[in-house]
Structures are given as C-alpha cells and as structure tokens.
Amino acid sequence: MGQRRWAVGVDFGATNIKCGLVDRRGRVVTSLVLSTRQFGRPAAFVEGIRRAVEQLAASAGLSTARLAGIGIGVPGLVDAQHGIVHMLVNVPGWRQVPLAHRLRARVHRPIFVDNDVNLVTLGEWRCGAGRGARALVGLTLGTGVGGGLVLDGSLYRGVAGAAGELGHMVLDPHGPRCACGARGCLEAHVGTAAIVRMARQAGVAHRGRLTPERLAWMARRGNRSARAVWHQVGRLLGRGLASIVNLLNPDRVVIGGGVANAWTLFAPSLRRTIRAATMGVPGRSVRVVRAQLGDRAGIIGAAVLVWNETGGTE
Length: 314
Fold this sequence. Notes:
alpha/beta; Nucleotidyltransferase, domain 5; 5-stranded mixed sheet; globular
C-alpha cells in the first residue's frame, strides 16, 4: 500500500502513559494521556493502547491500517528483539510479559518495544539535540539516572539488551547506597534524592519540602549555598561522564530529564570537569548539550524506533 507516514509512539511512565501520533519528521500530530493507575497492568495496558491507537488514528482521519506501527518505551528491562518485558521496577504485574505479541494480536500492526531511556536517546538523535551525531550518549536526570547509546547510527543495546545503565557507574565504592543495592553509583550522587541530601548537608535553609526545583529557584536568586550544590552536581556528573567520553569518544552527550531544568546552574562545572578529566582527543571531540524534545522525547523516540525497524513502508 506504499509509504506509511505515521506511527504511534507510547511512553509508559509510572504515573502516566503518553501516546502520540507522530509523522516522519518527528512531529506529534495529536496525543493523549492514560492513567498508569488505571491502565498499568498488562491486560489493561493492551486494551488501553488498542483504544488509544484507534482514537489517535481517527482524530487525524486515518485508519489504523495506514500506521507503520506502534513503538513502546517502558521503564524496565526489555528483550527488544522479541518484544518481551522482563520486569518493570515501579509498575506491578510486569514479569516476562510478551507485550509485542499480545498487542499485535489486538491492533494488527507491527509492534516494537524498548527501554524508555533508549527511546528518549533515539528521539534526540533523530529529531532533537543529537541530530547529526555519529556517536551519541543520552542521559536523563531525575529520581533515577538513565542512559542510552546511539553508536554509528544504531541504538546499542548490548548482548542482553541491558546496555546504557550509566546511572549505575560507580563513582565511589564507599559512597551512598543506591537503589540498585550498590554503593556510590552516579544515580546515588546526582539523582533527585541525592541532590536534596546534598543541599541539607550544605546547610541550605528552606521552609517546607525541599526539591531540586526549589533548590534551582533559590540558586537563581543568589543563594550561595544552593549555587554551590549545583556546582557540585556538575562536578560529580562530569566525573562520571568523563569515563564514558574516554571509553566511547562520542561527538555528542545529550542530557535531559527533570533535573536538566537546572541546566545553566550545573552545566559550566560539568563541562569544566569533563575537559579536565578526559584525555585530550576525546575531550576536545565531544559537545555536551541539553536535550531539546522535553516531555515529547519518549513518544517521538518510540515512533523513531518504528521508522528504524520498518522504514515506514509496507
């Protein structure tokens, strides 16, 4: 039937499931949001996505038969080759779920499943701050610290699909305990809980609940202790990324996630640390930039996965 110009991208989060109809330029034509509480279990998810796909296609005057496929990013371990979700840490009921097979039987379109941060990285590479990069490292900063790798134009997953866990590089084996069980991981140093802990240890005075957003607000208004915390976040993040830059010699590192909203506060010390801690050639070759796609990155990346796997044609 010729070229199919549209794909549906799904970004499965712990709170919301974002779905969007995306064209081949990476534009989200129309979108909707489902509640993870209501549609988070496997059977409910499959039925919810089926309805969402039909609704998105209809809103654009399309039949589902005109879709190139559906891409899904999930926050956990995935067998991307077979579309099996091994485990989701923060959503119950997901262990060894053959998601691609189940959803394909309901929507009769190609289904592709991958880790959510992999797809955020893929979206930035194709349509965002990573455009034109030959070797791209993607990092998302939030409650957790996630990573993804696009090398020579292809998403690198590793032999078991678990590559890119940059948040669990160990900076200090005697450092704070990480949620993964190890000590001193990058996530344990620059995740949101770590940033708040760092601020309290630095004596940042604040009434009410302290968050990275509030800490950034204080720093922008001249609070020296808050600014010092963000400088330290940049140094710690740079120390971790310096090892990746030396290892992979990427031309671009793209950083997103909620904590990246404080970009101007930590980017200078991040870049200085990378320059100081890397070997000359890889350090000079890399650009470290903020992500561009915002909260649409997961949807767009999931659609890019469809284009990569199908070419958008029947």
